[in-house]
Design a protein that fits this description.
The chain has a single domain (about 15-220, about 240-475), classed as MFS general substrate transporter like domains (Growth Hormone, Chain: A, Up-down Bundle). The protein is about 75% helix and about 0% strand. It contains 17 helices and no strands.
Length: about 475
């Protein structure tokens, strides 16, 4: 491809795709760690009431709702010799790693109010700096390729790295940093969380910088904003024109509902594994481990299924199958069909559900950002401007709902069933555990089904996308 005398555009090689996807290891590490351990750490380990932790998360989620679209719109209109995305990506590396590390190391002796303040400040810093990298990074996908199926490959690869990175580091939390010991050490004591944060912060910095450098050579060929002075009034008006897109709002709502269900599940999974099923930490770590190859299998299958059936069907059908698989063990226990804890069949059933549920759910969630990418050209046809950053701010916001609104709902659920603070496995009565199972199963069923209703209403298919590309090509010609 030749562009404006710049010569031939570098090919989108496997190495480039791999480095691009590598950056989402940071996303997975942050999102999965917060949803898996944050509520447990601040409530069960440090003794802060779950409802108060949920209140802090609600404030941070409101901050994200305002800040993410602003960062997206600014990056869409930013001009520099490094392009409009990469300066933000570099700027987010070190602050994200530092904020992640500090989150897990509040000073000893802090009161509950001081702990809540520490949590609030660290989360605000982490969310903002993470946005500086993740939002411009994922916004590169529709710029790197306009091809319908290839976008699915790129997004699926990114999701694979995100899930694998998150699960690997959570597994390291179970088996290395907060390893269960005969003297009572483990997830419910403070030892190990500081090291977990420090190592995680360093990994975040390394993968973010490597990913940004991996796509740097494409900067001269990426879409740039026009040279102009933009007033605040024009900035707001153009953002409003971009947001006046029904397909965008459909995908935004679908993503936020889906991510709330994922966050609710990930936040409570540790409670179910340790208290409901009374598994050892080694068994819980294996549950996380088997989901890593399942994630890569789902990533490999998603683009193939999209090519055969289209993005909408490949999102809806696997998600509903995955939902049925995910809630089945708890539902069977609530119905009195599942045998008691310790029975030899319990753990194999949980392993099977973890693998199959992960495959089907990830096929669906890996396809959703590729659907959002197709909104870019649909908006450009209507407005004459590309606005990947603003459009993908909704994908970034939806991702934060995993460790934001999903954790908020989990905290409220724990408060609703009167789950005891600083409890140890095997000491919690059956009644709050069964109530928690009912709330969780009903909650994720509602959020996932509502999300799929939104997906069913999404109007952009392959035919409409290719028509948009033809219209844009003719307009430019």
């Amino acid at each position: 491809m030749v562009s404006d005398g710049l010569g031939e555009r570098p090919p989108l090689t496997r190495r480039v795709k791999g480095l691009y996807g590598l950056g989402s290891v940071s996303t997975g590490l942050v999102t999965r760690s917060l949803s898996a351990f944050m509520l447990l750490f601040y409530s069960q380990v440090l003794g802060v009431p779950a409802a108060q932790v949920a209140g802090v998360i609600a404030l941070v989620t409101l901050f994200d709702t305002v800040m993410d679209p602003i960062v997206g719109q600014v990056s869409d209109n930013f001009r520099s010799r490094l392009g409009r995305r990469h300066p933000f990506m570099y700027a987010g590396a070190i602050p994200t790693g530092a904020a992640f590390a500090l989150l897990w190391m509040p000073p000893a002796g802090f009161s509950h109010d001081q702990l809540l303040t520490w949590l609030l400040v660290c989360l605000l810093a982490l969310r903002f700096s993470d946005t500086l990298f993740e939002l411009p990074s994922i916004s590169l996908a529709p710029e790197l390729t306009a091809q319908y199926e290839e976008r699915s490959v790129l997004i699926a690869l990114r999701k694979g790295f995100e899930m694998a990175g998150g699960y690997l580091f959570v597994m390291a939390g179970y088996e290395i940093f907060m390893r269960e010991t005969p003297d009572g050490g483990g997830l419910t004591v403070r030892d190990g969380y500081m090291s977990y944060g420090l190592v995680g912060g360093l990994l975040i910095v390394l993968v973010v910088i490597a990913s940004a450098l991996g796509t740097r050579k494409f900067v001269p060929w990426l879409v740039g904003p026009p040279a102009r002075k933009i007033s605040p009034q024009v900035f707001v008006r153009e953002a409003g024109q971009t947001l006046n897109s029904p397909p965008l709002w459909i995908m935004a709502m679908a993503g936020m509902l889906y991510s709330t269900a994922v966050g609710l599940t990930q936040s409570l999974s540790i409670y179910f594994n340790l208290f409901f099923w009374q598994l050892s930490q080694a068994q819980v770590a294996l549950l996380a481990t088997v989901q890593i190859p399942a994630s890569f299998l789902a990533v490999a299958l998603a683009p193939l299924l999209v090519k055969r059936f289209g993005k909408k069907a490949v999102t809806i059908v696997p998600t509903l199958i995955g939902l049925a698989l995910t809630i089945s063990p708890v539902t069977l226990r609530l119905m009195g069909i599942m045998p008691p804890n310790g029975h030899p069949i319990i753990y194999p059933l949980l392993l099977t559900e973890a693998v199959l549920g992960q495959i089907f759910l990830l096929i669906g969630v890996a396809t959703m950002p590729a659907m959002l990418a197709d909104v870019v050209e649909d908006v450009e046809v209507r407005t004459g401007r590309r606005a990947e950053g603003l459009i993908f701010s909704f994908e970034n916001l939806a991702r934060k709902f995993v460790s934001g609104f999903g954790v908020l709902i989990a905290g409220l659920a724990l408060t609703f069933v009167a789950f005891p603070r600083q409890a140890k496995p095997g000491t919690v009565d059956a009644e709050p555990l069964l109530q928690l199972g009912m709330v969780w199963a009903g909650g994720i069923s509602f959020f996932l089904c509502a999300s799929m209703v939104c997906i069913a209403l999404f109007p952009i298919d392959k035919r409409r996308h290719e028509a948009n590309l033809r219209w844009l090509a003719e307009a430019k010609a």
